[in-house]
Automatic annotation (TrEMBL):
Recorded superkingdom: Bacteria
Organism whose genome encodes this protein: Paractinoplanes aksuensis
Full protein name: MFS transporter
Bilayer disposition of the protein: Multi-pass membrane protein
Annotated TM spans: 21-45, 51-74, 86-105, 111-133, 154-175, 181-205, 226-247, 259-277, 284-303, 309-333, 345-370, 376-393
PANTHER family: MAJOR FACILITATOR SUPERFAMILY MFS_1 (PTHR23517:SF13), RESISTANCE PROTEIN MDTM, PUTATIVE-RELATED-RELATED (PTHR23517)
Domain Major facilitator superfamily (MFS) profile: 19-399
SUPFAM superfamilies (alphabetical): MFS general substrate transporter (SSF103473)
UniProt entry tagged with the keyword DNA-binding: no
Alphabetized Gene3D superfamilies for the sequence: MFS general substrate transporter like domains
Pfam family name, one: MFS_1
Length: 399
């Protein structure tokens, strides 16, 4: 006798979590976009206050230091205080930074504003990533994590690229190029605060609050997996750091293209390619090969002072970096236990942002003694060596 059984119905989560997923994705994009608004404006700041390319590097490093400090001090906090509270604090810091940017062009104000921006981004990145994963899971309990991986990574890189493009366009075509971009983004950040308030919380506060401790570099998972993921994130952010700090000055100086819009487009191309790469693949070998090929092409563009080849190399390297970063985030999010997810992602972002600041500071110092083209060629060579090391650990390392 055949027993007929009904197929098991698919589980569907709350529509409120689905709406919250897209709200937080938009907040993530806006907050990261704000962090790159000064990038195409650095040549204007240099002319207004008379500081050098090395000073631009220091200003950029202050931002990255702010990110690292924030991750160290508050990385795991959202795991027990809630995602919304931490995101609102992060947005508050970015709004304060926007107000400081509007007060003037003096170097001291720029440094303070960049440090505040870094603190906000450090609070936001790991928290928003963990939040998106939890909202995705609550909305689609049986679905794969593909939507989360694509959207979270695209919001991150897409936001970084969009900030430079919008700021470059506004600086090129509207009055007050060192004011208008910040006014626009202050409005968007205020709307983001409202969006966070409308999203559902995903963390239940523990009965006994854990004892506060600063975030170390603690990432749960097998050792080799963690090493490959963190080194990949470091290498990816080193490329992004180059294009959000010194690339606009290099394009305006060595390549003789001073357009503010072009400066924004150059950075947007790299981050846009990264976002597109993430939507196409999350495979570590493809990302590694693409970033290596892009760096070789980039070095050719630097050597020949060709803007076209420089852009092509940046796009290929950006696509590879995007894939590597997506692979790293997906790996850590999948291997870390739920109660350590925020902490582990914070550790990953901490190492990634060290990749953002370390190589760029080295470039700035080297550029003080050798030609910009020489220091950039050194940069590409060292990154290629790092990618080779990551491949070796992935293929022949032990857990």
């Amino acid at each position: 006798m055949t027993v007929l059984t009904r197929p098991r119905p698919k589980l569907h989560g709350s529509p409120r979590h689905g709406r919250g997923f897209w709200l937080i994705a938009a907040v993530y994009l806006v907050a990261l976009a704000f962090s790159t608004v000064p990038t195409p404006l650095y040549p204007l700041y240099q002319r207004a206050d008379g500081f050098s390319a090395l000073t631009v590097t220091v200003v950029f490093a202050v931002y990255a230091i702010g990110v690292v400090v924030s991750l160290l001090l508050a990385g795991p906090v959202s795991d027990w205080t809630g995602r919304r509270r931490v995101l609102q604090a992060a947005l508050g810091l970015e709004i304060l930074a926007g107000v400081v940017f509007l007060t003037g062009t003096a170097l001291s104000g720029l440094i303070v504003a960049r440090f505040l921006t870094g603190l906000g981004v450090g609070l936001l990145t790991a928290t928003a990533t963990a939040y998106l994963l939890e909202l995705h899971t609550a909305h689609r309990p049986e679905a794969a994590r593909t939507r989360f991986e694509v959207v979270s990574s695209a919001a991150n890189l897409g936001g970084l690229g969009a900030g430079t493009l919008v700021a470059g366009a506004l600086a090129q075509f509207v009055a007050s190029p060192l004011r208008t971009p910040y006014v626009v983004f202050l409005i968007l950040l205020a709307l983001s605060v409202v969006a966070v308030a409308a999203a559902p919380e995903t963390v239940t506060a523990p009965a006994v609050r854990p004892k506060y401790r600063p975030q170390g570099v603690r990432i749960a998972g097998p050792r080799r997996t963690v090493v490959v993921a963190t080194a990949s994130a470091f290498a990816a952010f080193a490329v992004f750091g180059l294009f959000t700090s010194l690339a606009p000055s290099f394009v305006a100086g060595a390549l003789h293209h001073p357009s503010r819009l072009l400066a924004g487009v150059v950075v947007f191309v790299v981050f846009g390619a990264g976002a597109v790469g993430q939507s196409v693949s999350a495979r570590f070998p493809i990302g590694l090969a693409a970033q290596a090929a892009g760096l070789i092409t980039l070095a050719t563009g630097i050597s020949t002072t060709s803007l076209t080849i420089f852009l092509i190399g940046g796009a290929i390297a950006g696509a590879g970096a995007g894939i590597l970063f997506k692979s790293a985030v997906g790996t850590i999010a999948a291997t870390a236990p739920a109660h350590q997810r925020g902490e582990s992602l914070a550790g990953l972002f901490l190492i990634a942002y060290l990749g953002l600041v370390g190589p760029v500071l080295g470039l700035g110092l080297a550029g003080h003694f050798v030609a910009a083209t020489t220091s950039l060629l050194w940069f590409t060579g060292l990154l290629l060596a790092l990618l080779g090391t990551v491949l070796t650990v992935d293929r022949w390392g032990t857990n």
